[in-house]
Amino acid sequence: MSCCAKKSGTECCGADKSTAQTSETAIRDAVREHYARVVTSDKSGSGDCCGAGSCFAPNTDQNYAQKLGYSADDLAAAPDRANLGLGCGNPIKVAKLQPGETVLDLGSGAGFDAFIAARAVGPTGLVIGVDMTPEMIEKATANAQKSGHKNVDFRLGQIEDMPVESGSVDVVISNCVINLVPNKRKAIEESYRVLRSGGRLAISDVVTNVELPEDVRRDLALYAGCLAGATPVVDLQEYLKSAGFVDIKISPKDESREFIKDWAPGLKLEEFVVSAHIEAKKP
Q1: Does the UniProt entry include the keyword DNA-binding (predicted)?
Q2: What is the pLDDT of residues 84-114, one digit of tens each?
Q3: Mean local confidence (pLDDT), 198-219
Q4: CB 127 within 8 A of CB 105
Q5: CA 107, CA 204: separation in Å to the nearest integer?
Q6: Strand runs (DSSP E) across the chain, as ranges?
Q7: Among 61, 117, 184, 185, which residue has the fewest nearby CB atoms (within 10 Å)?
Q8: What are phi and psi of 2, to 5 degrees?
Q9: Domain locations in the chain as residue ranges
Q10: Is the confidence at residue 175, as pLDDT, over 80?
Q11: Which of 166, 187, 192 is nearest to 246 (CA)?
């Protein structure tokens, strides 16, 4: 039983576990509904029911963000409500962004990482955010307009089929999103396609070194909560290598288990899932 089912029934995550089908369409629908609810709630966590922190229940506390690797300057510079507390790391910390670069943020949400990246690449650079949830795109675009950011461009689309020109991006970043994608291999291939030669991938996501229990993998609430879709490290390495990436580096962060245990209290999924920095380059 998922944490949502334990607390208030499955209505909070848009998935009835007893009848849920883990098809690609069902996964996308559950994820889209969950994050639309997150971004349209009046206060952090409204409409969600799974405890403090994470992709399940947003945690916008500055201490949590700093544990993920964000600085006080990052938090101060982000527009109001851009930080929805949905990450599991800080991909920008390892991306080593340079002025003038074009950055693509996969699953850009309300724009938190995109705005931090926009500051790093400066007015001569560009940050493209792609998200499949219309409400997220609307919120991110409003944040950009209110804050006066001119070098961000938020686009509606799936990251397995991105509305981005081939070979047009210097860096691909993402924060706790690849796990939410049904076709992870295709998402990695798309990331490779849009990168220029010499471009790099720098993402934070959840991974696993063991096979998750079947009841967890089939639970759409846990999938939307960034747990059931955690990618096995060996599979992720194969996806990256098969797409053509080189200099692949996957660095699990054991300390992340301390906050992952709060994502689904009592289920002990921190024994299976850990956050990691994932880096690779396109030759």
Answers
A1: no
A2: 888 999 999 999 999 999 999 999 999 999 9
A3: 95
A4: yes
A5: 12
A6: 102-106, 126-131, 152-156, 169-175, 195-208, 231-232, 246-253, 273-281
A7: 61
A8: -75, 165
A9: 3-281
A10: yes
A11: 192
- Rounded CA separation 52/265 (Å): 9
* Number of CB atoms found within 10 A of residue 281's CB: 17
The backbone torsions φ and ψ at residue 146, rounded to the nearest 5 degrees and listed phi first, read -70, -35
What pLDDT, on the 0 to 100 scale, is given for residue 47? 37
Mode of pairing for the β-strands spanning 231-232 and 195-208: parallel
CA atoms in the 13 A half-sphere facing the CB of 263 = 32
The span from the CA of 51 to the CA of 261, in Å, is: 10
The CA distance from 35 to 8, in Å, is 18
What gap in Å lies between CA 192 and CA 207, rounded to an integer?
A: 20
What is the SS3 assignment for 280? Answer: strand
Long-range contacts of 95-102, Cβ-Cβ distance < 8 Å, separation of 24 or more: 95/171, 95/173, 95/200, 95/202, 96/202, 97/121, 97/125, 97/171, 98/170, 99/124, 99/125, 100/124, 100/125, 101/125, 101/170, 101/171, 102/126, 102/127, 102/128, 102/168, 102/169, 102/170, 102/171
Q: Would you state the pLDDT for residue 283?
A: 98
Strand partners, 195: 169
Angle at 68 between CA 65 and CA 73, to 5 degrees: 50
What's the CATH superfamily of 3-281? Vaccinia Virus protein VP39 (3.40.50.150)
**Closest to 263 in 3D by CA, of 65, 83, 49:** 49
List, for residues 45-84, the tens digit of each pLDDT value: 433 433 333 444 556 566 778 888 898 888 888 888 898 8
CB within 8 Å of 19: residues ≥ 6 apart: none
Going by pLDDT thresholds of 50, 70 and 90, the confidence category of residue 8 is very low
Q: Answer yes or no: are the C-beta atoms of 151 and 177 closer than 8 Å.
A: no
